[in-house]
Write a structure and sequence with these properties.
Strand content: 25-35%
Order of helices and strands: EEEHEEHEHHHEHEHEEHEHEEHEH
Shape: elongated
Radius of gyration: 23 Å
Number of helices: 11
Structural class: alpha/beta
């Protein structure tokens, strides 16, 4: 039997004309604002997600990596029942997300990009209310809230109104709230967007701890470092399609290089790339958003040879960088654009 906790078959979402909306509020306290099922801001009509086939295994952290507008949040929206698919099917915890949306909600926890905490309640009350909403007896809800407050290092904030929390503490509380009812899958939709680097690292540790305890996590992000650090497997998305899917290490090996040299020079990038391809140990040279990206395999002393090749072709190099292949390298070579675009 498959251990897939999430499975999709040819899942597709198109926004054309009037947007489609999922159930208001997502059926849970502090749910998304009205209109959360509509197209993302700035997206034109067309397929936001195109024929997505995906499996997420039990107990893994799976990532969807891509730029803004790639279709990551729309995918999360369909899997959490907030967005109605145009076609295709999806199952979460073995439950059809369209046929049984209320049942799906009992098995998922969701942390969105925006603060969805109840600002009229304090930290502990937000947790207790969430537990009661999901059917916990009052005594159990209070005990579980106290346990999570301790686990997430919120003890000194337990009686504080959530509107006074910093962005990092609010996000930490939203993660705690999302697992209050012991969901089968935790969906994190760009949970560290807008957070400072220190707070982001702190939240990573929280996610790692949850994973160590067996929690299945589906994470969307446009931060390369986040995907590389947290995910066991990840899919690189753009324009609603999966371009590549593997472990982070496997994706980086697909570049067929152990070194990537990026060279900038005035003139025609295509002509510069053609000149650099003839250098020894170069496996690929293509124009990129930052110049010409040169893949090198076992190329000790490659930089002087590349400089010579560029000069012989009449190019004056103005900038040069050397790095190991990264997820961003993979993305640029798949799409021809910078991951942060």
């Amino acid at each position: 039997m498959s251990d897939a906790v999430i499975r999709t078959e040819a899942l597709r979402k198109e926004y054309a004309g009037m947007p489609s909306f999922g159930p208001p509020g997502g059926g849970r306290p502090g749910g998304p604002p009205p209109g959360a099922g509509g197209p993302p801001a700035g997206r034109s009509s067309g397929p936001a997600v195109a024929s997505l086939d995906l499996e997420v295994h039990r107990g893994e952290i799976f990532g969807l990596l891509g730029p803004n507008g790639a279709g990551k949040s729309t995918t999360i929206g369909m899997l959490t029942t907030r967005v109605i698919p145009t076609s295709g099917r999806a199952w979460v915890a073995g439950i059809d997300v369209v046929a049984q949306p209320a049942h799906v909600k009992q098995h998922i926890g969701v942390v969105t990009q925006t603060n969805t905490l109840d600002r009229s309640l304090n930290v502990r009350e937000n947790l207790v209310f969430h537990g009661r909403y999901f059917g916990m007896p009052a005594k159990q809800a209070r005990a579980e809230a106290d346990r999570l407050i301790d686990q997430f290092a919120l003890t000194d904030k337990r009686d504080v109104l959530v509107q006074t929390l910093s962005g990092g503490l609010a996000q930490r509380l939203m993660v705690a709230r999302s697992i209050m009812h012991r969901p089968s899958v935790l969906f994190l939709d760009e949970p560290t967007a807008g957070l400072d680097p220190q707070t982001r690292l702190s939240l990573w540790e929280v996610v790692r701890e949850l994973h160590a305890n067996g929690q299945t996590v589906l994470l969307t992000t446009h931060y390369m470092e986040e995907a590389d650090s947290l995910c066991e497997r990840l899919a690189i998305m753009d324009h609603g399609q999966i371009l590549a899917l593997d472990t982070p290490a496997g994706l980086k090996r697909s570049v067929d290089a152990d070194t990537v040299v990026t060279i900038s020079a005035p003139g025609d990038p295509a002509a510069l790339a053609a000149a650099l391809r003839s250098a020894e140990n170069v496996t690929k040279a293509e124009p990129s958003p930052r110049g010409v990206a040169v893949n090198v395999r076992g190329g000790r002393g490659i930089v002087p040879r590349l400089m010579t090749s560029a000069a012989d072709a009449g190019f004056e190099v103005t900038d040069l960088s050397v790095e190991e292949p990264s997820l961003e390298t993979v993305f640029i070579q798949l799409t021809g654009k910078d991951l942060r675009d």
